[in-house]
Structure formats: structure tokens, C-alpha cells
Amino acid sequence: MSVLKTVNLRRGISKAAAGVIIAVIVTAIVVGVVTYYAAVSSVPRTTAPPKTVTVTKTVVSTTAVTKTTTSPTTTTAGMPKKITFYTWWAGLERFAIDALIGNFTKKYGIKVVKTAVPGGAGVNAKFAILALIMAGKPPAAFQVHCGPEIISYFMAAPHKEKDFVDLTDVAKEIGLIKTPPAHACMLAGHLYSLPVNLHRANLIFMNKHVLDKYGLKPPKTLDDLLNDCKVLSQHGVPCLIQAGADQFTVLHLWEQIFLAVAGPKKFVQFMYGLLSPDDPSIKKASEIFVELSKTFPSNWMSLDWTSAVDALVKGKGAFHVDGDWVVGLVYNVYKNTKMCSIDNITPDCDIIAAPFPGTQGIYDMVIDAIAVPVGPEEKAGVLFAKFFASEEGQRIFNPLKGSIADYPDIPPSIYPTVIQKWEVKQYRESKYQVFSLTHGALFSDVWKKLLGGAIVLAQTKNLNLWYQTVSSALATEKKEWESSGLFLGSYQEPFAGFLPPWAKK
Ligand code: GAL
Questions:
Q1: Residues 259, 252 contacting (CB under 8 angstroms)
Q2: Position 170 pLDDT exceeds 50
Q3: pLDDT tens profile 41-52
Q4: Which of 70, 138, 342, 380 has the fewest Cβ atoms nearer than 10 Å?
């Protein structure tokens, strides 16, 4: 069922108040998108503006509270009793965040008003947050990905990065800074947001029953996948169930094909806008993408990622390419569905998770983080981010989220699914880590351009138009990195061992 259809205003807010909230936020999104483009992007858009969205504003109850181990030593004197947190973890994605917030409120007595703007990957939320930042009325805390995405918020703020709390010392205090994901998240040695998890983007989920029915094996290479899709198409069965309604799984698919074709080094160059648009890997990946897009179900434009997962679970197609938030969704919502990792496929398994073909040994990281704008609610915002990112917070959040924690010492036994336990091992054994382009590793205007471009490519198969979009996206990405002077990681340990030319001490 679609997230958009399932979100409702909860009890506790009057209809009139709810109306006002919706009006304010929807206006904020619309104004935000328009103003954002006017302010930070001089490159013409190739995408349609975001659809009108339904907005949930919920004061979360503390029903999902687990026992907290530490006593409330931090004083909350002088802090507001209620703060606002902006996120896109709405609808069927709400379980982990609700548990986290419930525990925070129980421990510190501060209510967190979760403003969940639906749309996977933040397709709508990011622009709502940008609008509030531009208007000088940011929330106490908001969800952001590690990667240049946060620099887009700096660009939108009146005093640039000075409008956000530098959380490096907080990360030191809670031992987070020593963890490899947190180190990778740094911008020139500083953390402006605190990582709370580690998701993986380069996964393919398969319905084992569909594979068995057509005598197919899990694909290990792109050729295997193309062959499986050929067989399924001959039987009129959708091969890849990707979703157009919330856009992101389509670019997400292109990204994984590109990663398989280009390899991690060129992938990192793409993130910095340094890869030539004429690189043969872009052409090859895009041609494969077009072939695979022909195997989407006929209703793909009306599916969002949760309804694509629903179709996969129900056997309406063979594969879905997505991140391991799918694991959280299946665990929380499809209680009788058994998931297996590719390393241990048992006969009673329903859904198999594997690295996307050709990307074995690579961890395409998606790291959710919390940023705190400078302002009157800053202290409470920092307290919330600190709790969320702490070992205690990550132990509450990650098991339900489908992700794994950033702290290497947290044992795999805390995770309820075999996939998460497998991911801990996969991450440890991974030879390369990259940052997902669809989830944080692009500036927000570049991201929006590619999101829309990938949808147009899947619809029209017009490769030339797509190459133009990629070329202008790469140029803008480079320009924005250059003008920021920033890079991922620190001078001592730059991300992926690569210090871009604009990184000057
Ligand atoms: C990603 C985010 C995940 C999950 C997913 C689907 O961008 O990092 O935590 O929310 O989108 O919405």
C-alpha cells in the first residue's frame, strides 16, 4: 500500500490545526522548491516539480519504549519541552523512528514533534526543509544523508555553514567519531550532522518462488540478470519491479548498474563531478538500464517503493533493486515473509537479498544523519541528535530500520533479521565503500535533475537526452564542490583515499 495513501493525521491535533499545518508545510515545499532553484541552481531543470504531498504531523507516543540503560544525567534545564524534527520516515517506514523518539522522550521529558513529509529518499522532505532554512525558521533537528547533500542546506542558509551546529565534539564525546562510517561522513574533518546508521544501496531483492517457477538462479553478473529478464519477459512476467511514483528507485537502479560497470574509483569521481561525461562506462550502464527498464511492470509509474516491495512479496515480478530499508519494511509489515541472504538460501525462503550483480565486495553506503540548525532550540536539538547517534540510540533504531549500527562493537545478535547479521559481515569484508549517489552523494539540485532524468529515460528510452542531463549534472556537481572547498573525510584520511584538487588547507 502506498505511503501517501496510508498516512493520516493522528489524534491529538484538531482538524483546524491540522489544516493550518498542512497549508504551511505544503506552501513551504512549493516555495522551497521554487526558491531553491532560483537561489542555488543556474542550470535549467529537466524534471517535473514535485507532486503535492500529504503531510503527517505527529506527536509520537512513547508506547514503543524499550528499557533505557543510562540514567538521565544530562540536565534539560532551560530547554524547550517540545521540539520539531523533520524527516521522511513516514507511513510504513515509521517504526524505527517512533521507537527512537519514544525512548528519547521517556529519558529526557522532551516531546519530539515528528513532521514526516512522505516520499522515499526524501523526494519531498528535502525541499520542505530547504524552504524552512531559507525562511530562517528551521526545525530543531532534521534528517539528512552523509555526503554533499548537507552542503546544499549550507548554500540555502543565510549564514551558510555557520547556521548549523558543528557536531564534531559531540561525536567525540559519544565515541562515534572513531567509527569508520562517521569518519567517512566528515566534511574536511568536521561533522555537521551525526550519523545514526549504515544502510546499503547495492542490493537486489528476489522472490524465490518466481525464480523457482521459471527455473532461474539468482544473478551474479549483469549478463545473468539480463538473461533472467529475457526469460521472464518471454513469459510475460515483470522482471524488475521499480517504482516511478516516488522516483528514487529508478535512479537507484541506474546507479547500481553504473557501479557494476564503472567500478568504485570512477563512481567516486562521479560523486565529485570529476568523471568525463564521455566515459564509456556511462554509455554502457545507460544502455543496460534501458534494456532492463523494458521489463518494469506496466503500472510502474504508479508504484512507490513500498508498493513495489508489496508486489515483489506477492510474486508479481522477480526482482526489486533497492537499499536495505526494504529489510525493515518486510520485517515490520510482512511478518510471515521469510528473508534469506544469498549465502544461505533455505527451501522455505520467500525473499532473497544479494549484492546487486557485479557489485560484490562493494558497500554502497547510505548513511542517515541528524543535523541541528543554530537557533533557540539548538540545545535540545543537539541532545536529540546525540541520543539518536549514541550507541544506545543506534541499538534502538537500527534493528527496526533494516540498517546496521555505525559502532563496530555492537554485536550482530541485536538484529532481528538474518540479512542484517549478513550485512555486518559483508561490510566488514567489503573491499571498497562508496557513497550512494541517489542517497546523499549528490548536491540536491543535481540529484533532482538526475532523479527526473532517469524517469524520463525509462519512459522514453531517449539516451541522448539522458547523456545531456548527466553531462550537465556532472558539471554542476563539480562546480558546487569547488565553490564549497570541501571534501569527504579528513585531510589525514580523505574518503576513498582521494583528495580532490579544490581541497586546500
Ligand atoms: C533513504 C534513507 C533511508 C530510507 C530510504 C527510503 O534515502 O536513507 O533511511 O528512508 O531512503 O525512504
A1: no
A2: yes
A3: 332 222 233 333
A4: 70
Closest CA to 128 of 74, 54, 200: 54
- Name the residue of 199, 388, 394 whose CB sits within 8 Å of the most ligand 1 atoms, as the mutation to test its pocket: 199
Sign of the Cα pseudo-torsion (205, 208, 214, 219, in order): positive
State phi, psi for 66 to the nearest 5 degrees: -105, 170
Radius of gyration of the chain from its Cα atoms, rounded to whole angstroms: 21
**Residue 244 identity:** G
CA 200 to centroid of ligand 1, rounded, Å:
10
Tell me the whole-structure pTM to 2 decimals.
0.89
Per-residue model confidence as pLDDT tens digits over 374-401: 999 999 999 999 999 999 999 999 999 9
C-alpha 230/C-alpha 236 separation (Å) is 10
The C-alpha atoms of residue 57 and residue 213 are separated, in whole angstroms, by: 44
pLDDT band at 498 (very low <50, low <70, confident <90, very high): very high
Question: What span, in angstroms and rounded, lies between the C-alpha atoms of 340 and 211?
Answer: 14
- pLDDT-derived band at 75 (thresholds 50, 70, 90) equals confident
Q: Cα separation of 500 and 187, whole Å?
A: 12
How many residues are recorded in the chain?
505
| 184 within 8 A of 433, measured Cβ to Cβ | yes
Question: Measured in angstroms, how far is the CA atom of residue 121 from the centroid of ligand 1?
Answer: 4
Residue 360 CB burial class (10 angstroms; 0-12, 13-18, ≥19): middle
Q: How many helices (H) and strands (E) does the chain have?
A: 19, 13
Nearest to 435 by CA among 162, 144, 164, 127: 144
- Nearest-angstrom CA–CA distance, 208 and 488: 39
Looking at residue 338, the DSSP 8-state letter turns out to be P
Task: Report the nearest-CA residue for atom 11 of ligand 1.
Answer: 121
For the Cβ of 228 lying below 6 angstroms from any atom of ligand 1, the answer is: no
In angstroms, the CA 54 to CA 412 distance is 37
